[in-house]
Amino acid sequence: MTNILISGGSVAGLTLAYWLREHGFAVTVVERAPSLRDGGYKIDVRGAALDVVSRMGLLDEVRRHSTDMRVARFVDARGRQIGTMSAQLFGGREGDDVEIMRGDLTRLLHAAAGDGVEYVFDDSITALRETPEGVHVTFANGAPRTFDVVVGADGLHSNVRALAFGEESRFVHDLGHYISIFTVPNHLGLDRTEMMHPAPGRSTGMYSTARADDAKAMFLFSSPPLEYDRRDPAQQKKLLAGLFSGQGWEVPRLLDAMEDAPDFYLDSISQVRMDHWSSGRVTLVGDAAYSASPASGQGTSLALVGAYVLAGCLAEAAGDHAAAFTAYERELRHFVEENQKLAEGNLRGMVLKSAAQIRFQMLMLRLMPHLPGRNRMIERVTEPIRKAATAITIRDYRAQAA
């Protein structure tokens, strides 16, 4: 039985663990965190990713955990409403698309993978060495072990990618923007509502989803590359507070609440672009291989589909990792490229450069309900996302492997 190690216990890693177990592989997941990472922000599941979730028997559960967001409201520095938009259009969703909190999806995936997967929490890989027997893996805490295949599903700043492919700077491309998200008290009493305060080069949001007592604060901003320690939240909080100092609306109050946030997150909005995702017996999946960035709205869908395809290719190849990795890249590359294309265009609408652009965008929002051809205008917004989300037809690898 092929023995596979997955580094990373989030969406890509857990989806891969489920499908590898379904195909009869022995699976171990190593996760740096001391327990399952169940925090995070709202994410979308669209197109081919919905097919993956459905084949896992999770679609009804995912729908039950929908954020059920209703509306997005835009406000000026004094809190006066200057525009409004349906939550579906704001998120670029249509039809069967589902929005869910990342933590809810992670818990559902973990439960679906079941007891047949070995989990090693509070540990990480420190070295990889290929031998005739497989990949000899050294861990920070646990004893060394050998696996037939190692998969890096450990995100934008992938440790496995660094060990197997080299420096992060070769593959991570900064899109000139940053994002910060964290939990705050719902002092505005929001109910499935998203509030957005646009300012030149800055955008601040706050939202509360269905079944949530608290809220999330979100900060988006354009910036040249920033120097900070990714392991030092206190330094990052100070940086964010300085960048948004003097902003209006609820920004000061959200920054005050930031100090006590249990899940503070700040990172660049970046993509991972690689000529190949595999090296020897090591391969990558999800953000580690092809992060499309939060601006694409498709990172989670890429993780779900990529994990499904990788597991299926390994099953079809019956343990021939080289053949499996070649098929994986051949089947997925176009889908990845189409989804990565979404990011830069989306960013132009998420963070506006000037007050004039903000005024024009808000004017268009107010006029849209009264304009002829309104439906076609909406379709032009959602069409690129729909095309990218369905740019692959996923096969039934279970039937092929049998």
Automatic annotation (TrEMBL):
Cited Gene3D superfamilies: D-Amino Acid Oxidase, subunit A, domain 2, FAD/NAD(P)-binding domain
One Gene Ontology MF term: monooxygenase activity
Entry keyword Oxidoreductase: yes
Leader sequence residues: none
Keywords, ordered alphabetically: Monooxygenase, Oxidoreductase
Occurrences of domain FAD-binding (ranges): 2-338
Protein name (database record): FAD-dependent monooxygenase
Organism: Microbispora hainanensis
Upper lineage: Bacteria, Bacillati, Actinomycetota, Actinomycetes, Streptosporangiales
